[in-house]
Amino acid sequence: MFLLVCVEFLLNLTSFSMTIDFFSVLGWAMLGSKVVGICCRVAGASQALLAQRSSHTIWYPDANAGGMGKLWMSEKYDEYDKAIGLDKLEKLAYEMPVFSDSYEGKHREKQLENMILNFGPQHPAAHGVVIKAIPHIGLLHRGTEKLIEYKTYTQALPYFDRLDYVSMMCNEQGFALAVEKLLGIDIPPRAKYIRTMFAELTRLQNHIMGITTHALDVGAMTPFFWMFEEREKLFEFSERVSGARMHVNYFRPGGVAWDLPLGLMDDIYDWAIKFPERIDELEDMLTENRIWKARTIDIGIVSAADALNWGFSGVMVRASGIKQDVRKTQPYEVYDQMEFDDSMESLIHHFKFYTEGFQVPPGATYVPIEAPKGEFGVYLVADGTSKPYRCYIRAPGFAHLAAMHDICYMSLIADVVAVIGTLDIVFGEVDR
Q1: Model confidence pLDDT, tens digit, residues 370-397
Q2: Where exactly are the structural domains of the chain?
Q3: How far apart are CA 193 and CA 237, in angstroms?
Q4: If both were cysteines, with which of 20, 114, 218, 384 could 295 make a disulfide (CB 3.0 to 4.6 Å apart)?
């Protein structure tokens, strides 16, 4: 409609040049009005955004660099003032303080940026050297040690399956031995052999997982699939004896929950006869592989002195040249054979053990075992009731993770994933 009106108006003009001049003026006027309108809208939106951002700004450590470490909230910002401890949240407009050793303990402002690092094989021309590695723990913290204080000794056992969840029965064994030591009891030899056998089968499960996933991290995929077939067979043994594949809850203070089912020992024996052949296949595939050597030799070297200072144990300390094994240095107790001739009336007391719990005499003890990842220790304090007064868990992975900075210092970024695979960290036991 607007175009028709303009055409009719132009037809009344007497000069063609006047028509050209009019079109020029009209075009520039229309274009100018649109540009001015857009600019006004952009300016208005920018002013509103800046006003909103400056009035509701809080400090946030992981904010983008464009915001200089600030984060703004548009609504309900005042409901957090009590938790933060400030009267008015609008006054928060801080820059991100970053500690600098070079300024003698003073704080300086630094612009931080989020950066995505792709771990893996790195081109020789690519830069990137690790100058500091600080592990941040606690994301998997569940308060396990405190929860155990509110459970009976039998109820506390399932928590140990969820610490290092690829070394389940070894964790259970440490707690069971600590309770038995406080009670001053010996377990039957059959129970001792059953617990030892399944602890070693659990050790194989852990090492299969650690070695093959380490190989997978540095580019070797075939060993992972080959050996996980054997790991599935071990899971079947756990399922047949306890009903669960991973969180078995099989060990008990005083022995095990159930006896072995018929035929299980024969199947374990047949598997153990064939398993060394699979180890030979793994060694042929991985040990002499040139890519495996290139990604592991002279990477993450730890001396014997550093290993002792950091509190390493297990394969980590033995890899540094120190022959240390809790199974040899502090062997688990040798129990004498015990015979029982119980009637049904005496079994009623055993039923009460599971409903009310059993009382452990007051005392404290520390029991270490050789877990797949190293020395797994349980410091148990009893106060004479059916619940532990204190249960401290010494996880081997915590000490190994603490050495990340010294191990990775001046290494390439691509080598960090190889170091993590060597440490074989499970954060279930680190954070607890």
Answers
A1: 777 777 888 888 887 777 888 888 888 7
A2: 144-431
A3: 16
A4: 218
